[in-house]
Design a protein that fits this description.
heterodimer, B: alpha/beta, 8 helices, 8 strands, globular
């Protein structure tokens, strides 16, 4: 288990427990009582630390190296996943995952970002930053979902769209903009879930739908805290302040009514118990899908449009 | 000014702020632009009642509230988009223009809502929509709310498209980030002003990412034309 800086007291305790366990298996002395006591202490310590996380700490959890990625959930929630690749025009972008699968037997279309777990996969998938061909592959699969009446489930986890020369040359802006337009009117239910980092337009390009869900310790913002800090504070060191100011956590965003449902994470975060997290996520997807599938198509689209038009706060 | 020639203000104005010596297109204010563009009458400004609010109580080195009142004072505008329904050589149109001097033409809730009123008017009267963009992107001080304006403006354009109402997007210097990656790139016809900087990521961010100097003309209108944007 990798612990973040603010989890150091928990890490120390867990280290002690581990030591005791080793002694326990080496010797005949019964120390299970002591272990139990320390485990209880570790739990309440974790509860207390996690009950008052700062936005910056949540941002670190959202990027935790062991945080479950889309494919971890796909393996646990869906069956018969078949990856579909390529934009049929230029390339296949590994930073974007797309494919068909079954959710409790029901066929669905899945889309999401791939960050990559080990170095090799991280480089191959460009650390989860798609290029235009990634968004165009996503668009192709959205339209296929519409054609075959497959509900579209998207899983957002990206630092942002790739800010590179090749991406600009091939029209990164257009690729994102076009997806926003397509998703607004796609004739099939769409549920978008932020499972880690929701980074700006690169997240939104697969993030327009009927419901927006967020895992408790995921984040969603218009720019990364580092980017915001370097522009507004002229120093990337102020990222923690920027994270706080932007209100990028699930609780702040649901207060602002930008998020429909926050899915609670296991104690210590999704990576501490991926099975339990997957179970909850699956239930949330099933529940929300059931509501959406009861709506006739025109009602579904009207409701989505009204929701999009309601975004924003101003004086009149 | 590009050629740094000394010009009379009156000459420049008569040439619609395009340098008579080197043809450089100056950045011009939204109201000045729409003033040149539309017939003198009829003109009706839309969405004038909308005013920005600081929903997040956002504060960096300055409060958003103070930045807003400063920008309002400096420009005389309530926010960064101006929408006027009028006529272009007798053809009824709805025209919108971004005011870059208002917090870098950034798109927040008011800009999004005004753009929607522009598109709604175009649909109601069955007349074309034209938008001149000049923007650094989404307004960070409105955080995720500003990101959602990308979805909102794109959604209204989807509807406009379906109704068969033309949308002409004119990208002026600069059109970047969230504005470029939503309404600006969704024109039936996309027009770029000569030498305007247009793109998703800013040149500085790209240089930091790829760790090399960008070639001359990168992300300029002519570059986009060559690359099929």
């Amino acid at each position: 288990m990798t612990f973040l800086d603010f989890e150091q007291p928990i890490a120390d305790l867990e280290g002690k427990i581990e030591e005791l366990r080793l002694i326990g298996s080496d010797n005949e002395i019964n120390i299970s009582e002591e272990i139990e006591h320390l485990e209880g202490k570790s739990r309440s310590l974790t509860e207390s630390i996690f009950s008052s996380l700062t936005a910056w700490q949540v941002a670190q959890l959202a990027r935790h190296p062991q945080r479950p990625y889309m494919m971890d959930y796909v393996d646990k929630i869906f069956t018969d996943f078949e990856e579909l690749r390529g934009d049929r025009a230029f390339a296949d972008d590994p930073a974007m995952i797309g494919g068909i699968a079954r959710l409790d037997g029901q066929p669905v279309m899945l889309l999401g970002h791939r960050k990559g777990r080990d170095t090799k996969e991280k480089i191959r998938s460009n650390f989860g930053m798609p290029r235009p061909e990634g968004y165009r592959k996503a668009c192709r699969l959205m339209k296929m979902a519409e054609r075959f009446k497959l509900p579209l489930l998207t899983f957002i986890d990206t630092p942002g769209a790739y800010p590179g020369m090749d991406a600009e040359e091939r029209g990164q802006s257009e690729a994102i903009a076009y997806n926003l337009k397509v998703m607004a009117e796609l004739k099939t239910p769409i549920i978008c879930t932020v499972i880690g980092e929701g980074g700006s337009g690169g997240a939104l390009a697969i993030g327009v739908g009927d419901y927006l869900l967020m895992l408790q310790y995921s984040t969603y913002s218009v720019i990364s805290p580092e980017g915001c800090a370097s522009i507004l504070w002229k120093s990337a060191d102020k990222a923690a302040d920027a994270a706080e100011a932007m209100g990028m956590t699930s609780d702040r965003l649901s207060e602002l009514k930008l998020v429909d449902q926050v899915i609670e994470e296991p104690l210590g975060g999704a990576h501490r118990n991926t099975d339990a997290m997957a179970e909850k996520l699956k239930q949330a997807l099933l529940d929300n899908l059931k509501i959406l599938q009861q709506l006739p198509e025109d009602k579904l689209l009207e409701q989505r449009y009204e929701r999009l038009m309601q975004y924003g706060q101003y004086k009149e | 000014m590009s050629c740094s020639a000394v010009l009379y203000q009156a000459d420049l104005e008569r040439n619609l702020y395009v340098c008579p010596k080197c043809s450089h297109h100056q950045r011009i204010g939204a109201r000045v632009r729409l003033g040149f563009f539309l017939d003198a009458e009829p003109r009706e400004e839309l969405g004038t009642a909308l005013e920005p609010v600081d929903a997040l109580k956002f504060k960096d080195s300055k409060k958003y509230k103070d930045r807003l009142s400063q920008a309002q004072k400096a420009t005389g505008e309530k926010d960064a988009l101006i929408v006027i329904q009028g006529e272009l050589k007798g053809i009824p149109v709805v025209a919108a223009a971004f005011e870059f001097r208002f917090m870098a033409g950034s798109m927040g809730s008011v800009v999004g809502e005004r753009f929607v009123s522009a598109a709604n008017a175009a649909m109601e009267f069955g007349i074309p929509l034209i938008c001149f963009s000049a923007s650094g992107g989404a307004r960070m001080q409105e955080a995720l709310m500003s990101l959602m304006q990308m979805a909102k403006t794109s959604a209204v354009l989807a509807r406009l498209n379906r109704r068969g109402i033309p949308f002409i997007s004119v990208m002026t210097d600069p059109t970047m980030g969230g504005v470029s990656a939503s309404l600006a790139m969704l024109g039936d016809i996309n027009v770029g002003e000569p030498n305007a900087l247009i793109g998703f990521a800013g040149p500085r961010v790209i240089e930091q990412t790829v760790r090399e100097k960008l070639p001359k003309g990168f992300q300029r209108s002519e570059f986009l034309l060559d690359h099929g944007a």
